[in-house]
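Input.
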Amino acid sequence: MGFLTNEGQTYSRGLEGVVAAISAVSAIDGQEGRLIYRGVDIEALAEYSTFEETAYFLLFGSLPNKSELEQFSAELRDAREIHPRVKEHLKVLPSDPHPMDVLKLVVSHLALYDPDKQRMDREAKIRKSIRTIAQFPTIIAHYNHARHGEEFIPPNPELSHAANFLYMLTGNVPDEENARIFDIALILHMDHGMNASTFATMVTASTLSDIHSAIVSGIGTLKGPLHGGANERVLKMLDEIGSVEKAEEFVLKSLQERKKIMGFGHRVYKSYDPRARILKQYAERLSEKYGDTKWIEMGKKIEEVMIREVGRKGIFPNVDFYSGIVYHFLGIPRDLFTPIFAMGRVVGWVTHVLEYLQANRIFRPRAIYNGPLDVEYIPIEKR
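Output.
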């Protein structure tokens, strides 16, 4: 085949519509606005399940019985602490990097001390995955304290995965309702088909690199504002709008100027994102609980205008639109919103990696060359 012989090759910008893997982990029906984890609708998991149970379900392919869930939860609790040298390193990091950059750095650092660092068998990969899932909340909470010169708050083994993070972050044991809402938010972010960060982790893992390297690839990909950084930018947009009375004018002007309204539209969904529908309910509940309805009222007004103006084009709220409001009321700093996304999504990352490696083939796509041919090389002395 010559350089410019591209018969039978097709190009899909951004790999849109290209099938890269066969998976039993999750699926999206973008037309109907439906998301399932291993066949179970996300609405059912959000109503009845927990982070620990859903993580087990994704990782091992079946809902755990009581004994299995207790054992898995104990494994997560026991793995929350991070190595003392990594904690010392956190204390000397600059206070101004994006927390996602810190998350990348610390996950790489933890790989150096992992008990299974020299092992590449499936069982070791599962253990490393569970440890990393357990350590994400500790990394994020500890860095938030370190950058403010505060003492670390150690994990509380009496608390669930979600409640423990809020405790480590704020120093206060959250009430049952707030812990449950955060638990649901993590479930909703846990997996979402072949998204960019999941694909990135799989590409890295397909080279037979280690789990920590694959996760770092996912973190770096999720950091981008077109993927995981939009919920932070939603609140910045609401700040800019200022009041519900100005919301419609802002949306109409932005649409006229072809500016993106953060938290709307999705590559896959052409109807209402089911995760956004769930989070909207909890954003409303927290707004009423704390007597501050400014954010939710602006959000609902923006949604109303957007659906009226562009809903026919399949543009509706996505998961980012209401998650930022939820996190705001839970006391989570805005620049931690994307690390929180990663805290849930790391389960999906490692699940897809473990699944793909069972019949691994290194990802090696091709590019269509459209550059020049037969260019004469001119030595530097004659240029």
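The longest strand covers residues 26-29.
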